[in-house]
User: Which sequence fits this backbone?
């Protein structure tokens, strides 16, 4: 992490996301939508196999079941895997997010900083700068949902699901002075 520091820059805090933290606020709509999708696809698969239907329609059901199962179940495994390859750093000038593929940063001055505590009060998420999920004209997956491929290489610079809340809050206060 010290290799990312600039001359006369002071490192205030380092950490990472808690890989055991699986759920986020996006799950309030992602889980019901994927359950409805799977319910529809199960009904579809049973329906085309009970009645005479063309082979492409019979194959479509199981394929769509697999595609619907990834957002419902597979994304939690993927989210945990992505989190293990992420490091966060807060300096007196920048917020730095390092993934396996990219290093992203945002200067602290002049950008909004949003804090969100988990419902159970054990983890903190801090977003720096613009909140948009857009990437080159398309809407990307919600950040920290397990549906993104790179844990924030294209979304906002953010520290997701940090268990060291007091250390991060203290560093944010020191950086804000």
Assistant:
């Amino acid at each position: 992490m010290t290799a990312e520091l600039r001359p006369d820059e002071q490192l205030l805090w380092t950490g990472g996301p808690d890989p055991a933290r699986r759920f986020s606020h996006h799950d309030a709509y992602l889980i019901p939508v994927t359950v409805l999708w799977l319910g529809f696809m199960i009904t579809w698969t049973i329906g085309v196999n009970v009645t005479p239907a063309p082979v492409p329609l019979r194959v479509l059901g199981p394929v769509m079941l697999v595609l619907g199962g990834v957002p419902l179940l597979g994304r939690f495994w993927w989210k945990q895997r992505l989190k293990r390859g992420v490091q966060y750093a807060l300096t007196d000038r920048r917020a730095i997010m390092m993934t396996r593929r990219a290093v992203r940063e945002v200067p602290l001055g002049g950008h909004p900083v949003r804090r969100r505590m988990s419902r159970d009060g054990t983890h903190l998420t801090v977003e720096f700068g613009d909140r948009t999920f857009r990437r080159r004209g398309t809407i990307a997956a919600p950040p920290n949902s397990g549906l993104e491929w790179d844990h924030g290489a294209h979304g906002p610079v953010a520290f997701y699901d940090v268990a060291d809340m007091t250390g991060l809050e203290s560093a944010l206060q020191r950086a804000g002075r």
Observations:
- The two ends are 23 Å apart (CA to CA).
- The first helix runs from residue 27 to 50.
